Amino acid sequence: MDDSPTPPGGFEAPFGGTDTPRIGLGIDNRRNRELLSELLSEYEAVELEDRVGSETDLCVVDPGGFDRLAADIERWKAEQRPAAAPALLLANAPEPAIWDEYADAMGRKLDAVQSTSAPKRAILIRVRGLLQMRRFSRAAKERHERLELYERAMDGANVGITIADADEPDLPLVYINDSFEAITGYGPAESLGRNCRFLQGEGTDQRTVDRVRAALEAEEPVSVEILNYRADGEPFWNDLKIVPVTDGDGEVTHFLGFQDDITERRQREIDLEQYEQVMQSIDDPIVVLDTERCVELSNAAAAELLGEDDELAVGTPVSALFPPGAREDVRRALTDIERSEEPQECQFALPAADGERQVFQFRFQRERNTADRPVARTIVVGRDVTTLREYQNRLSVLDRVLRHNLQNKLTVIAGNTDLLTDRREELSSEAIADIADSVDAAVADLLGLTEAARQFHRSIEPGDRAGSDADLSDLVEEVVTAARRRYPGADIEFDAPEPVAATIPSTLRLGLDGIIENAVEYATSSEPHVVVAVLDQPEENLAEIRVADDGPGIPDREREALRRGGETALEHLQGLTLWLVSWAVRSVGGEFRINGRDPSGTVVVLRLPRAEA
User: Fold this and answer.
1) Which of 34, 346, 547, 605 is in the most buried spot, having the most CB atoms within 10 Å?
2) CA-CA distance, 197 to 189, in Å (whole number)?
3) Alpha carbon of 270 to those of 224, 249, 265: distances in Å?
4) What is the pLDDT of residue 1?
5) Is the full-model pTM beyond 0.70?
6) What is the CA radius of gyration of the chain?
7) CA-CA distance, 128 to 42, in Å (whole number)?
């Protein structure tokens, strides 16, 4: 091989510099192999032992390499058809002699010969020419394969495919595939040569038709969902896409149309929209969790309760929805449902927008199994049971009040009756009269208890807002006046400004009377001192009643019971009375507080909405 330097001059790299050809070298002469490897350094050159790889673009051999690889070169060329698989023989002889010697192999095993005595430039030109042939043949093969693929794809496509001739008036169809006939019911005989508007009917939206027509006139792509009709008159929703096809000069020659029957999808979309409306209209929070325990769907109630700024982002982990104290219960419920597939329930308090706490019961259950996919998602449905819990607590407390008073009064009646029965002969007429008065008082108290129960029935309803506008000062003064007559040994002060109009619950008179009674009966002094005051708080739009005593105060656990809604048992009638009063005040949107008094005692504060005088 002539090792004179390659003259300068531009020869473009084959394959446009985007694909480095692979050249297989079957060169037994070591010196020629080294020189050839250097000459072909711009390519990927690999040495061939006994087999030509399928990714080889050009095979270069010398006589020894050809003898060793001839059979495999023939195999390689056959596998590459119809693409060319060129093989070049380099031999130390004039080219005519080489042609004569290897004439039988030409075309079948060899494509070209080159004398090694030729300049390197000539060898390089020959290599580049063979690689260019390889490139063109590969491109032709790929185009041929693509055309075959397109033909198979169009014939076997699940969507309808049509081709309209853009050079003919009214764009007649010149091709339809089998799926078009299956979707529409129109075969080649009814379709070819006609404009595709025969699919339209009375329900087809004219605005959609105009949009398609405008796109065709502008020779632009268009995509619409249009109501079409099958050959039997049945309507169907057609996802129609039309694309212009141009020739080498950029002129539109055809329009390629794709038709997809999306009737079922449209119906599902309508159903889903209805389900979405129903879900969003439900007041109970609903969250759907994916397999990773993250939010996949939610309604507005869930976003308001569990989200931030009334938003609940998809992908939010379930642990981020609940306060820290509730997360372990939630994790346990999800673990149990994944293990047993049985619904689980949790109940805990959540902060509300107004600063109060709401008690919610959450039910975790698996999505119902369907035929086309296994159960994977978890549905979480919450229910506000605050009112129910409060209602139950109020009934329980009222039951305690009634049983407490009934037991006390019946004990008084039974004790006095036994006294009359056992010692009637020994008792004086004055003692018998006193006993009779005690029994009469107890009976009167029992009758009053029935009236109290009736009045408090309204306050037991947590959502009730029963109340009327009246002068609060007059009502409190009447209660204080009656209490003074009933407890002449007690010092009951009263202080009130000018008339103060407020929204007063129907049970306030009875409740306020009970607070004063508690203050007197539970006093530690023989001469109880009670201060009852009415205050006007116009800046807060409230009217206030304060009842202050000098007694021992209310135990901390009963204060906690009042605060938490009856979750802790109330043991004293004083606490029970305050419960009933607090419900009544809150029923009209008021506030109830219990404050300590220095050095001892309690201040009960009732705050009611002011009303127009």
Assistant:
1) 547
2) 16
3) 18, 46, 9
4) 58
5) no
6) 49
7) 11
